[in-house]
Amino acid sequence: MIGKRPVFFTLLVMGALFWGELGAKPLGPVPVGAVANLQFHKAPEFVLGEAIELTFVLRNGGPLPLKAQTGGDYRATGFPTRYKFDVVDDAGLKAEPTVWFDMGGIIGAPHEVEPLREYREQLVLQNYVRIDHPGEYLVKVHHDFGWKATPERPYPVAEARIKVVLPSAEEAGRRVQALARKNDHLQSSQLGQYWNSPPFVLMIHPIYLPALEQAAAGGCLQAFEGIHRIRNTDATRALARLLESDQPEVASAAALFLAKRLPVPNWKERPLRTLQGFTTPGGEQELYEHRYWVPELDVTVTKTARKMITRSEPDAVGRAAHLLGRLGRWRMRSW
Predict the structure, then answer these.
(1) Using one digit for the tens of pLDDT, what is the confidence trace for 70-98?
(2) Structural domains in the chain?
(3) 183 vs 106, 178, 198, 250, 251, CA distance in Å?
């Protein structure tokens, strides 16, 4: 009997390879009367590190029913990827797009929206852009819905302003502690996977680092996902300290994410992984290599990783070996 996983994977691959045939079909020009707006699940002021939840509302203000195609939206990511976000802060800085691994889309029937009715979809802003500093942001969102835009009939764009404030160190600590208490224990093998998105991945500001390190040291493996996404050398040093943990799972997780921060041997960015031209960058690792490593840590990390090799836990041994291999290539290149 064929297992469910191989069949599911085959469907995903077929959806990716035959996107042109199975994806959303053109539905004609943008319908007359199609308008969009954004509704936020709380007042449009958010704390940096929390999920910014919103609802995209497509309203049919025209005289006839309209069809909106969303088939192929999710593409194995867990959220609809065909929404386009343009987010700019009050200084005019555009928010960096969030990366994900796109597995292709599957066909779906279009939604029919009657006159004066709405199609609504709940979204999380950080699935699309990286919000890593406080400030006021102008958020613009649109979706093609299978339509063809023209200068006279462009896609309806929903627009809103939000404010993102920085928590105090004490508040950041309380937020991390609350998550660490209620989140389920994560298997070490699940760490670092693109489909793993615990709430800690939103805590990417350095103000969260002390609390995240403390939570990780206490055995909350999900906290590593937050440390990994903090873009400074302090996060690298925190991972090096966690590598020395007496808890095998903690040390193993630290080895995994330290290896992701090591420079690539040729000092170049990895090429973006593509599949039929529909794949976005393949994960956070490409953003960290050769930017946030601390060369002074080479000797300490090597010594600790060598000790891990003698352990009996397969995950710890495998990740320590990988880390040592990456360290060796990095040191050879730097000579």
Answers:
(1) 877 876 677 888 899 999 999 999 999 88
(2) 4-165 (2.60.40.2970), 169-334 (no CATH)
(3) 32, 9, 9, 16, 20
